[in-house]
Design goal:
13% of the residues lie in helices and 40% in strands. The protein is built from three helices and 28 strands.
């Protein structure tokens, strides 16, 4: 006759089984990591990805992380709890594309032609084939977008007075001179602006025939995106921390927001109809109100398409008919597509991490995009111009030049060795090391 198991014996068997299962899983993961490392030795990436891939391998050592099987670079997990059980689920994946876009890239340094101050007074805009930048003591520098050569004839027409800020609204150049607003007329003269300006001293984020959009950012305390109905002169607002790009597709507005606080965060929301957002009815413009007494107000948002942590997204725009995201992850800034929680890296950009506080990306037409980069205090330190499938980073001081991120005992590699030549007229070219 068999004696029944005692309770302590049953408990011991259960514990032994759990330990054995964990050891089995541990061994499985270790074997998987070894197999991935062996497989990755024979993976042949696009040559443009090699410096980036080398950096990712160093990051694996730095973070003591097991390698993924290339072309997958990283998988982010989160834990789900169901009753007494918990398990991990993939949050998002980062992988390499089979082939890089091959965007020609270059950098230039343009100095203030009117004085010693480094950075512009307001964010640059594209106007009639020119990059217009307002420098101290209040004058415009005008550079052609195809060659970045100065157009001093246009500068003479614009600089008949000093300005403190400028915008491009309804394809019209608007400037703040003293306390008055002026618009540059088709006759080539500055005339007083006859209509109210919904923006404060802040850059435009987006504009179409009906809406004008901009944003505010209060750091970890949140931010907002504003849609101003130009026909009815009504403000609508939505929660967003902190908006940097808007793409319009099939009548809907897709708002990209990101914040560098802690390890970073980003989200992508879809707004089908701005009139369904919160309508502003205060005595001032919504961005001018006191936010310290406004945190509990119910403000609507759009439909969230993704919401990620430990990652920043600095820009979004359409290229080749699909959205592109400028992803900042672990010190590298990359160009990637996104679909179903998978980021596919399509360009390593400058193999550097772009530092920016509240960037703004504005689309001026198919394939013409300007990204304003600021280093705090809403001061533009550089900008990136994408035109005719060529990307140029315009630095307002040599300190802002992007250089390959170096780690450990990495060898020196210069992205400028393969980029298109920098302009030499009106611009100080970034020399190759």
């Amino acid at each position: 006759m068999h004696r029944p198991f005692r309770p302590f014996a049953i408990l011991a068997l259960l514990l032994a089984g759990m330990v054995g299962f964990n050891l089995y899983l541990s061994g499985t993961f270790e074997r998987s990591a070894v197999l991935n490392a062996l497989r990755n030795r024979y993976y042949i990436p696009d040559p443009e990805f090699k410096p980036l891939l080398r950096r990712f391998r160093q990051l694996e050592s730095l973070y003591n992380a097991d390698p993924e099987a290339l072309p997958i670079v990283y998988k982010d997990y989160f834990t789900l709890q169901e009753g007494s059980y918990s398990y991990q689920k993939i949050h998002y994946t980062i992988r390499l594309a089979p082939k890089a876009l091959g965007l020609p890239k270059s950098q230039v340094v343009l100095a203030n032609p009117f004085g010693p101050e480094r950075f512009p007074l307001s964010f640059s805009v594209l106007y009639q084939g020119h990059l217009l930048t307002l420098f101290r003591p209040g004058y415009f520098a005008c550079y052609t977008t195809d060659s970045l050569r100065r157009n001093q004839a246009l500068e003479r027409r614009l600089n008949t007075r000093r300005f403190r800020y400028h915008w491009l609204i309804n394809d019209q150049l608007i400037g703040l001179s003293g306390t008055r607003y002026f618009v540059f007329s088709p006759t080539g003269r500055w005339e007083p602006l006859r209509q109210p300006l919904p923006l404060s001293r802040q850059p435009k984020l987006f504009e179409d025939k009906r809406y004008l959009a901009w944003m505010t950012c209060n750091g970890e305390w949140g931010g907002e995106v504003y849609f101003y109905d130009k026909q009815r002169r009504i403000y609508y607002l939505a929660r967003a921390t902190c908006p940097n790009s808007i793409i319009k597709h099939n009548g809907s507005y897709f708002v990209l927001s990101s914040l560098g606080h802690m390890l970073g965060s980003c989200d992508w929301q879809q707004i089908d109809d701005p009139t369904r957002l919160t309508r502003w009815q205060g005595p001032t413009r919504p961005q001018d109100r006191d936010f310290t007494n406004d945190r509990e107000n119910a403000i609507r948002s759009g439909k969230t398409l993704f919401d990620y942590q430990q990652m920043e997204m600095l820009s979004a725009f359409v290229l080749n008919g699909e959205p592109m995201f400028m992803v900042n992850w672990r010190g590298s800034t990359l160009l990637a597509t996104w679909q179903n929680d998978v980021f596919t890296i399509v360009d390593p950009l400058f193999n550097d991490g772009l530092y920016t506080h509240t960037p703004v990306t504005t689309t001026y037409g198919p394939g013409r995009v300007l990204m304003n980069i600021n280093a705090g205090d809403n001061v533009e330190s550089a900008c990136i111009l994408l035109a005719d499938r060529q990307l140029v980073k315009i630095n307002w001081h040599p300190d802002q030049v992007s250089e390959p991120t170096m780690m450990l005992n990495d060898t020196v590699w210069s992205p400028l060795e393969t980029y298109a030549p920098a302009v030499t007229d009106s611009a100080e070219a970034v020399s190759e090391p």
